Structures are given as structure tokens and as C-alpha cells.
């Protein structure tokens, strides 16, 4: 049995029918591209994924990297796979041609990396984090810094990390204590401990470029006193050759539930006389630069959640078609042959729910990628600004919805396989474990929910919030024209009305109770908003599928579009009504858990 | 940080305040017992758990048993722990004194084994499966079989397994192909392959007694042609000494997501001339005997789900009290000290949800254990029959609700710890992995849902269904007397009304559509009924806590009872309203997923 990593037909639908990626080729930056070059990149990714990633996916999971006190050891196949990504140009496929990139739009690049992620998100982690690091320095570093650090990261000689978390301050960046002291050369000496640094040490590349958040001596307290530094593993001479080892030491490896090939490290900066660091931009503005990377990383996290859900769905679907077991309830003759388990009602539910979660989540991530293109390359300033506003608003949802519902999809994939889903002969239990990190890193679901309700909704006189509502209303107006879709459009309208009332109620509540009490159901609010947004994304898909069906497609396309409509219907009937449950909790200003005293637990 | 395995105060509440375990001592079988002997057994279990299980809990997980083609190797600490359970008498604490047991009531024995389960459910698996095997042979075997197999299992020399699943037939027992041929001695020769046999081979005991389902040559097709056999690893001579090795071979070990210390094996029976097996009871009645064991095992599975949730809750609660991070939203001064994370609204939600799931689930399991006592030892035949009827009805809910909501609780425990929850320095990710088996084995959640809706509800003119409704009405009537509880009692009443209407609708639907279509939302029905039952269990706890509060308890007890009422309120406000969501799906006779064609996926 070889299940496809991803459905090619679905990717085609999303890229070219739902999001019209071809239109990108009208823009100056992408004018050398066309649908064929996009597809060629997708095919390259699929080939690398199937040739280098897929065969080692489970070995990477079962043979974790080790640390002998001196160096990190990992199975050599990881380096072969990482090198294949670099050599194929996939590691920096959005970067400028001048930097060795493919200059692909984000929306296409997202689908390209989806193949690699589906075949081994753990192994992909090394190059995708490097890419994010290089993007940040490109945006905020000096020309000299770009030359020294970005160029070798783009060509694969150096790797990159982001080093934020500290033992005493996880999500609470305001309390980070890593210090930076300016030395006589105008550089800084960095001292402190960082934990959970992905790819923090390994031998895959010649050098590792850490982006480190630290506090310059005398800086203000809290988040306003945080600066960002480039702190390399090895210093680099002016001619680009490697110099001596910097004062950065690997203190240990963490052993994770999943994502096991991607080393998670504890790093110790400045055990001797301080690690040499180079300031990025200005002092005390580090967090805003890091958020450049973090917003991008949040979309990537959502994407990993969605893609791992997609590949688990494909795997369990394939299994359910091929595995005979049991009979339909109506069949009373024990001598009749067993049916394939996809015939059983509850197995179909678990498959269709996975499709609804995974394809809804991934379409949402591609929307994010397209908005990211638009904010950079849309034709007018007004369009770019509008895209930025909507993307900024949607980011907590794009980060958290796929990372919450991706693992739920993988959980159903395990259940479809039954006992076989619980053992490592099949990858679905690993998908769950890999995916479980996504609701945690780059801001937990709880943090995303407060970002949405406390910041993004009221921000700029509700500009992002209104933009989101308007975008949904537009789709509703189109869907109402179709007999097949009008009922779903009405259901979404009703949920949006509920959402608006709920939003008003919870924001008004901060006048009559503490903000902590009023916002204690912020995750229910995120659930509510997330489900409304994903229902909208499904209605958008429904509009495309419905129109395509009316143009007498080939049988296989007809089946595909009917499947899309059925998944949409499932989401509207089995999931969207939950919005009213969450809305009630929020609108009631329920504080049952907030009122729970520590001594009562 | 040493989090308690379980809350002693909560166990005391459940055993003595909610279920009145002391009343058991009025029954002849338990007349030598009193509260002190019960507590002594609990203390013994706690001591063994803390001394032998807890220190190796993570080692058992990280160092899986291996198979070198000849024998299974496991870390020696497992044998030490298993021996400690046997030597302390805890392995067969419900068994007769005459067989070396403690003759404890089930309700107390359940709490006793909860300590061991919390400290290492994997290691406990060996003795609990042996105990279930011995119980089955005691109930259905001959006096000679009991002497030969049960006695050495009770005293710990032999271990026991149940061997049902085959590679081609997982949940579909009707299709099992393992064969049995009667030989000249009146024994049978067994041939076939079994998979996922827990504890199928190891060196912990002198011998292993497999209970094997097989089909006698010429038996009817389907489940009516299945017989049950005792098939030992080593034959046993008439003097009780071990004879030659039987024709049972270990074909391999499975590597599981969790529960890693408990070997899961593929066994090959009869590779040479057939493994010698001894028929239990009569031919072709094997499945009914196995269901004796399976009903017991289903309650045990629910219990494992609940206990693993309880211990994860205790662990994350302890962590949340001790871990400082961030500030309340209302606090704008960055120089104020960070608060412990239990102060954050969303962390409190995740803790209170765990309490509501875990304590609700465990109270439900103890109700099952008490009904199991009552069906055997209640004073009158009518009481015994009533207990049997209710327990039989509730079994699919007792099996599945804790095994579905236990992992959800563990998932929240991971989230409370954030990044620290994802690494193996803390056990919460292991709890999740261990617990994830429970919705699968001993009948998946899907199978339990069909057992409930298709069999248990209509069975015996709705006798069990009506008994369950009556029991709930009784609690509602009591709760209505209290001002603090009346509103909750009304909410439960409303949900029960919805449940009744939904039940009528879905059963009537089988007249107008195929049974497979009508029952395609059986899991929603199980969710609906499960939530109503757990709300009832919470209301029962609320009644006790409310009464206790009015009698001016000590401060620590007052806090405890207030916590119970708050968890009850949380369940009623955040969970019970979901029953209306599920009821709508079922009552609409929604067939969206059932109508999904294979080609559309």
C-alpha cells in the first residue's frame, strides 16, 4: 500500500481554481513564471520528498539525535535529505534570483514545501527555520550583515535558528534575562541560557546563525527593553571564511513527543567571556523585528498542522479502502464477504471529518500565503495595505485553527486504523505526535486567543475585524446566487451575526468586570471565530466546486467537486453549529473556571 | 516537585461519601472487612506504587522490550515491580481468601489498583490481565481447570492473556480463522495467528496461560462457531510441574505509541503439529464466555482512561501552582513579579476541565464497580438483577466515555505545561500516549456506540435504558430540594428530555431508511448519552458536596467541597449544552458522511 503524500488534484484545485495563483505571473516579481514553472517546482518537491524524505520518515522518528557531551549525532540520512533540498533550490524558493532563490510567490512556495512537510516535517525543519532567519536579516539587517549571513544561509552553507525561550520565561518574553554588553569593538557580549532552540546544534552545515533576544544592560524592563542579535556558532572572517568558535555551548538535547529528528536544544551563551553578537537594527526594538519572523513562522506552524492532517487523511483513506473487515449492519449472513471498512458509517464520518478539517485548514493557510504575497506585491498601495490588514488580523486564526484541528484529524486517522494505528508500522501515530507541538510553539493557543480578542479585534478601530467580516459577506453574496449553496450561505450569515453580538458583549464586559475575568473564555472566542472563518473558506471552495459542476466536467472531476461539496456540507452540519455553543459561553460572561480558587482544586 | 499520584481526599470522597463502600461490610462475603482494612489495602497499593512503579515509569516507556528471535528481553525492574504486586496480594485482591485473594469488593479493589495504574498502567497490565483470565476460568472452567490454571495464576507463578485478534480480523471476530481439531486424547490442536496479544510472551512468570478463540472444524460460520481454549505456553503435568513447551511461538513484538512496557505480541499457534488446547465450557459458546471477561475488561479500560486522566490532572495542577510566568492582563507594570500560571484564566479553564473530565469519568467507573459488586452480592435476587441490568446497559458508556475524555484531559495537561509538556522530562506526554490505546482496544468507540444504540437501548423492552433514566430521575428529585442545585437539576432534566426524543427518532428511522444510514451518527448518540450520564454523576457528587457544606466542615473540607461544586458547574455550563448539538445531528437523521461516495473522497 502506498498512500499518496498529498492529493495532487486537491493542490491543483486550491492553487489554480480557488486562489488563481497564475494571476501572480502578471506581477513584475513573478513575470518569468507561469503555470508550468510552478508545476515544475511542485514536481521537484514531490520527487525530493518521495526519494529522500519518505524512506527515512520513520527512522528519523525512532532514532533520535544524541549528544555525547561534545557533539550531536544523528543518522546520516538527515544530512543527505537536507542537502537534497538545498541542491534542488527548494530551501529558499521564495528568495530573489540574485540570492540563488526561485523567486516563487508565497502561495506556490507553500504548496511546494507541503510535499516535503508531508514526507518529513521534522527534517524540513532545518531548512525552513534557516529560511525564516534569512528573511528576517534580509528585512532588518545591514547590507554587510546580509552579505555575511544571509548569502551563506541561502546557499546552504549556514543554518539559522531563533533563540527566544529561556528556562525561567517561556511565553513570558518580558522576563527574559539574557544580557548583552557592548564591547570596545562596538559588538556585544551575550550571556544567558536559552531552551527549546530547534536546530540549535548539529553538523549539517558549516555554521549556525542564532538570532538571539537579549537585554542590553540598562535597557527598560519588560518587552520594551529587548534587542535582537546575530550570534553565530563560529565567527566569520571578513573574507567569509570561518574563524574561531564563538562562546556558545550546547548544554543538552530535549527528547520530544514528536518531531524527533529536529534537535531541540538547550544553549548556553557566554559561559566564558560572553558570546560575540551583532546587533540587528536598533537597540530595544528586537521584539518588533522578531515578530517579523514570528508572523511568518505562525503561518508556517499552521501550515505544518494542516499538512500533517492532509497526509494522515490520505493515509487513513487509502487504508480504509483496502482493509476488509466486518459487514454492514443490514447484512445478517455471516458467509457474505467482509466489506472494506470505508463502507462503515462511522469510518466514513472519521474520513469526511478529516477531509473537512485538513482541507479547510490548508486552504486557510494558502489564503494566508496569498495575502502575504499581496501585501508585498499587489499592484496598488491600497491593495497591499488591505492585504496586510487582513493577514495581520487572521494570523492568530491561521496559526491556531490548523494546529488545533490538525491533531484532531490525525487522532481520527489513528482511530480509522484501529490497533494498527497505534503501532509504528503505520505512520499515523507519529503524525499525531509530530503535530501535537503546533498548538504550543510560536505562541500557544491561549496566547493566540488573547492576541485575537485583546489586540487584533479592536486594533485600528476594528479595521482588520471589519475587513474580515466584509470578505465573508462578499462570499455569502455570491453563494446566495446558487440554489445549492444558498442554505449554507444563510447558515454562515447567522453565525456571523452571532459572532458580532458576542464580540460586542465581551468587549463591553471589560467596563463592568476585570479584563482577566471578561477574557477568561478567550479560547472559546478563538474557537468561535476560527469555525466561522473556516466555514467561510469552505463556502469559497463550495462556490468554485458548484460552478465547476455546472460546466459538465469529466467524471473524475465531477467526483472531486462532489466530494468538495460534501465536505463543505459536513463542516456546516457537524461543526458550524458549535459556534452557538461557544457564543453562549462567552455572551453569558461565564466565569466558572476563573472563579475557581487555587485551594479548591 | 512531587505531584501526588492521586488525590487521597478525592478517593475518600468517592469511596465513602459518594458510594458508601463501608456498607459492603454488611454483606457476608465482606464481613471480615471494615473501613480500616479497606484503607490498609489502599495504603499498600500506594506504597507499592510509589516504591516500585513510579521510579521506573519513564524508563519502562523509553526502554521498550526487545525480541532477539528467541526470547523477549525487558528491563529487570519490571519483574521486580510485578513481583511486588504479587507478593503484596494486590494482584488478585478481589479473589477468594481460599485462592490467596483479599476478597475485597470491586469498588474498593478498583481504587486500590488505581494507585498502581497511576504510577504505571503499563506494568500493571501483566497482573490485571492475568486476574481477568483467572476470573474467566473460575466462572466457566471445570474444577480441574481451576486447580491447574487458576491457582498458579492467583499465586503469581503463571500469567494469563486473552488471544482474540487476528491479522485478517480485528474487530470482526466473526471472521476469525484460527482452527481447533479434536485429537485422540479429547484435547484440541490449535493452529492460527493472533496479533496484538498483550503480555503474549515474557519471562516474568514460569508459564503463560493463553485464552484463545478458535473455530472447531465444521463449526457454524460467524460468531456462533467460536470456541474458547486454554492454550498454555508450557504444558503442565498432573502434579503441577511444568512439562514440555507447547506449540506456541512468538512471531514478533509490536512497537506501540504508548503502554510500551506491556509487550504486544504476534503469536503463532501450531506451526508444527498444533498447539494443545483445552476447551473451556462447551464448543461454539466461546464468545459468550469471552464476553464475561470482556465486560470486566471494558470497565477496566474505562478505569485506565480515567485514572491516567486523574494523575495527569494532579501533575499539571502541581506544575501550574509552582510555575511563575507572565502577568495578569490587568497588570501593566513590567516590574511586577510574574504570577504562577494557575492565575491565568485559560490555565484555570484547562485545569478545571481536566478535573471535570477525570473525576467525572472515575466516579462513573466506580459506579460500574459498585454495580458489579451488587450484581454478585446484593442481598436480594431483585437487587442483583437490577444491578446487572443497569451495569450491562452502562458498560459501553463506562468503557468509552473515560477512554475518550481521558486522553482529552491528558491533552490539556500537556498544554498546561506548554513546551515542557512536550518533552519526556515530564510524564504528561506519556500519559497521553498510554491513554490513546483506550478508545481502541476491547471494542473501539464506534463499536461501543453501536452496542449502545443497536443492542443495549432496545434490549429486554428497554429495561436497561429505563433503569438508567429512573436512576437519573432519582438524583434529580433529590437535587431539586437544594437551592444551590435546582438549576443544575433542571438542566439535566432538559437534556434527558432531549435524549428521550432523540432516541425515539433514531430508532423509528430504521423503518424508513436502512439501519446503516439511520445509525450512521451512533457515535454522536454515544457522546450525547455519555454526557448526560456524566452530568448525572456530577450532580450526584454535587448533592453530597452541597449537603456536606451545610454541616460546617473544616476549612480544608470546605475548599474541597466547593471545588467539587465548581467542577460540576463547569461540566454543566461548558459540556452539557453540547448534548443539544449532538441531538440535532441525530434527530435530523443527517447522513452527510454516509452519503459520501468512495470515489468522492
Strands side by side in the biggest sheet of chain A = 4-5-12-7-6
Please work out how many helical segments of chain A DSSP would assign.
Answer: 17
Mean pLDDT of chain A: 95
Largest sheet of chain A: 5 strands, mixed, barrel
Strand content of chain A: 5-15%
H/E element sequence of chain A: HHHEEHHHEEEEEEEEEEHHHHHHHHHHH
Helical coverage of chain A, percent range: 40-55%
N/C terminus separation of chain A:
49 Å
Tell me what the CATH architecture of the domain at 8-149 in chain A is. Answer: Orthogonal Bundle
What is Rg of chain A? 25 Å
Biggest chain contact: A-B, 105 and 105 residues
Q: CATH homologous superfamily of the domain at 8-149 in chain A, by name?
A: Acyl-CoA dehydrogenase/oxidase, N-terminal domain
Low-confidence stretches of chain A: none
Q: CATH class of the domain at 8-149 in chain A, anyone?
A: Mainly Alpha
Determine the CATH topology of the domain at 8-149 in chain A.
Butyryl-Coa Dehydrogenase, subunit A, domain 1
So what's the overall shape of chain A?
Answer: globular
Oligomer: homodimer
Count of DSSP E strands of chain A?
12
